Amino acid sequence: MFKNAYYYKPNFKEVIERFEKFYDSVDSGSTGNFVYRALLDSDLELYKNIKLNTYDFNNDIDRYISDLVRETEKTYDIRRNVYDDILPNISPVLGIGDYSAFVAGDIIFSEDTSWSQPVLTHLEDWRELQEIGTSKWYKKFMLISQKLIEQVKGTDIPFMRGFFSPLDLAHALRGESIYTDFYDNPNEVHEFLDFLADITIKFADNLKSMVYKYLGESKYSVWFFKDSINMSEDISCMISPELYREFEAPYTQKVIDHFGSGLLHCHSRALYLVPELCRLKGVKNIWIATDPNTTEPISILKDLIKQSNNVCLSIDCSSFETVINNIEIAKGGNIAFCTPVININEANRNTEFIRKHSKC
Predict the structure, then answer these.
(1) Which residues face 264 on adjacent strands?
(2) CB of 169 closer than 8 Å to CB of 99
(3) What is the pTM of this model?
(4) Do the strands 114-116 and 107-109 form a parallel or antiparallel pair, or are they unpaired?
(5) How is residue 114 annotated by DSSP?
(6) How far apart are CA 34 and CA 337, in angstroms?
(7) N or C terminus: fewer CB in 10 A for the chain?
(8) Can you tell me the distance from the alpha carbon of 295 to that of 62, in angstroms, rounded to the nearest whole number?
(9) For 79, phi and psi rounded to 5 degrees?
(10) What's the rounded Cα separation, in Å, for the pair 46 and 69?
(11) Which residue from 338, 339, 332, 337 is spatially nearest to 308, judged by alpha carbons?
(12) Where are the beta strands (DSSP E) in the chain?
C-alpha cells in the first residue's frame, strides 16, 4: 500500500541531510541550526482511528496491521505537499503498554492507548524474571514489527521505534514502590537498573537486526536505527537531579554508549532535568514535551540553551508567533520547533521562515 518515500516527501533526501547536519552540530560546536515540524490536525487522526481495544492480538494481528498501514499512509498522503522536516515512517502504535510487556506481564488496552501493570511485588523479584525474548508480548511485538517492516520494504520509508529508559522500565515493572526503593534498598536498585539497561540493549539490538535484515539495502529505511537509540526519561521527571545522577544517569549512559548516540525525551514539569540529560555523553537531542500549566520551554529558551551543552533541543510551541519572537535567541543553540498549523499553506510559510534563518 505504501508508495515510495519521495511520493510522500519530494524533499525526502534533503530532510535527511538537514537532520544529519542538525545532529552533527552538537559535536562540531555549530549553532543556529533549526528544523521544523508543522502539526496538522490530520497528523493526529491515526491515533483516533486505530481503536486498540477492538483488536484481538492473539488472532487479529493482520487486521491491525492492515488498519495501521492504511491510516499511516493516509496521514502522509494528506501532507505530501508540506515541505517541513517530518519524514514519512512506519511504527507500531500500541500505546505504552508494550514498552515494558516485552519483559513480562500483559497489556491493558483502552480505545486510544494502553498501559501495563507492575509485576514485581518485591524489588528482588526482578531476579526471577524469565529470560528476555521468551515472554508472549516480546514475540508478539517482534511479529508486529516484522509485518510492518515488510510493508515498507523497497520504499525507502524508515521504520521507527522508541524505548523506555532503564528507570521508565523499572517503574513500569515495579510501580510506585521504586521511589521508596531508592532509600530502602539502593544497592538492589542499582543492580536492577543495570539489568534493565542490559535487556533494553538486547531488545533494541534484536529489533535493529530485524530492521537491517529486511530494509538494510536502503540507508534511509534504517536511518532511525543507525548508531543511535531513542529513549524516554519520563519517570526521571519525578525525581530530583541528585537522584537522577546517582541512580539513572549511569544506566541511560550505558545504553547510549552501546548504540553510539542518544535521542532523549523529558517533560517541561521538570526543566531542571534538561542540564542533567545534556551532560550525558553522546546525547544529540532532547525533546522537551510541554505539560499543561507549566513553563513553556520557548519562554525560557535563552536559559535552556545555556544549559544544553550545545545539545539540540526539540520544543513544542503553542503558536508560530512565539517562534518568530524568539528566533534570534534560538540562534545561540540548535532548535527543533513544532507548532500547530491550520493548513498546508501556513505550514509551508512557517517552513520557509525557518529555512531562511537556519544554517542547516
Answers:
(1) 231, 286
(2) yes
(3) 0.97
(4) antiparallel
(5) E
(6) 7
(7) N
(8) 43
(9) -105, 20
(10) 10
(11) 332
(12) 33-39, 107-109, 114-116, 163-164, 229-232, 262-267, 283-289, 312-316, 334-340
